[in-house]
Amino acid sequence: MRIAILADALDNQKAGVHSYTRMLIDSLLSFEKDHEYIIVRQNPGDEYPSARTLSIARSKAWPGAASYRLFIEVPKKLRKLKPDIVIETAHFGPWNLPSSIKRATVIHDLSAIRFPEYHRRQGSILQRLFLKGILQRTDLIIANSRFTAGDIARWQPGLVSKITAIHPGRDPFFEPAPRELLPDKYKIEAPYFLYTGTLEPRKGLLTLLEAYKLYRQNHYSVRQLVLAGEMGWKTGNIRQALQLHPRANEIRLTGYVPKNILRQLYTHCHAFIYPSEFEGFGLPIIEAMSCGAPVITARNSSLTEAGGQAARYFRTGDAQALADEMTLLAVNKEIRSSLQQASFAHVASFSRKAFAQNLIESLEEVVIRKDR
After folding, report:
1. Cα-flanking dihedrals φ and ψ of residue 61, to 5°?
2. Which DSSP string do the residues of 329-340 spell out, in sequence order?
3. What is the CATH number of the domain that holds 143?
4. What is the rounded CA–CA span in Å between residue 87 and residue 102?
């Protein structure tokens, strides 16, 4: 097969879709080398020598340039290359392709449909206007979890036959790291609780901040809370809670951190806390467990799928319940140790080889159906 991958997320963001897109490309190029790959992105790149990179720059010189690129320029160049199938990794496409070229669309979650208040107004409106039509036109819907697959099916029952759930593969970079001194600018001292990800309303950070306050009223063994990630949208309440927090001097905001620092943070945290209120999968849980971090997460959406039996759970939005879990892991070494051992066994099932094989089988089924 000739497979084109729309990979703009490699160049225009650093968050979850970026990580997923890189994982998808790395997995296919490592384990499914019998096919031809075309990587479409905004910036030139030579990091994938075994694939063809098609760079189509995103111009800002005139109004409408981004839309022209997305709806006209990218499809025009793809039609000339005649791939068997095109994969869109970020919900929004593929667009304007002939029926001879099959389409696959990755859906990470339906939060913009289910919870528009968590998103920028423009992004939520665009998904509400276009996502249903995109999924009706696509030939394959790739969900990153069984939960997301079910969510799509409940929202659009007529699309069930197109949906397949494929868990992301674990990044082998994330493994226990030897202790090294973190850069002084972070001012992080072990032991600490850790959250990673964009700071935005959906991530449950107000619950985490309240839980940390409750924990610190009675316990002192873990003295820092590290929030590793960039500020996202609609952060007014989060910023205010940080400013007014009684333990503000013990909360560390790192901003974006490179992977080598992130691995250090995961490996040496006392516990990784992921209080998100809704997730399509929850890849940071897999990253943290791969580094041996005990995990506490909310019980909702796909998070029990990501955490399995190797995580501790609390009721979504319940700060006292989260504080109780933090206390338990702060005082009980045996539970922390058992969680660490369970984590390594759990993440072993999230292999990139299995991801690549499952994805190729799904793509082949669509393409073979075309040829009949």
Report:
1. -75, -25
2. HHH-HHHHHHHH
3. 3.40.50.2000
4. 9
Q: Do 341 and 360 have their domain in common?
A: no
Q: Which of 20, 28, 17, 77 is nearest to 51 (CA)?
A: 28
- Give me 35's structure tokens: 């096919």
What are the φ/ψ torsions at residue 163 (nearest 5 degrees)?
-90, 135
pLDDT at 139: 97
Residue 109: inside a domain, yes or no?
Answer: yes
Count Cβ atoms below 10 Å from residue 245 Cβ, excluding itself. 17
Other CB atoms closer than 10 Å to residue 133's CB: what's the count?
A: 9
Instruction: Say yes or no: 68 and 200 in one domain.
Output: no
The reported pLDDT for the residue numbered 371 is 55
List the domain range (segments joined by +) for residue 198.
184-347
pTM of the model as a whole: 0.93
Identify the CA nearest to 196 among candidates 247, 130, 272, 143: 272
Looking at the fold, whether 327 and 366 belong to one and the same domain comes out as no
Residue 317, token pair as written in the block: 């939005």
Residue 175 located in a structural domain: no
**Is residue 106, in this structure, part of any structural domain at all?**
yes
Low-confidence ranges of the chain (pLDDT < 70): 61, 370-372
Q: How far apart are CA 40 and CA 14, in angstroms?
A: 17
Spatial CB neighbours of 125, under 8 Å, sequence gap ≥ 6: none
Task: Give the count of alpha carbons within 13 A of 363, CB side only.
Answer: 26
Q: Find residue 52's DSSP bridge partners.
A: 38
Residues 256 and 343 in one domain: yes
Q: In this structure, is residue 311 part of a structural domain?
A: yes
Q: Give the pLDDT score at 370.
A: 58
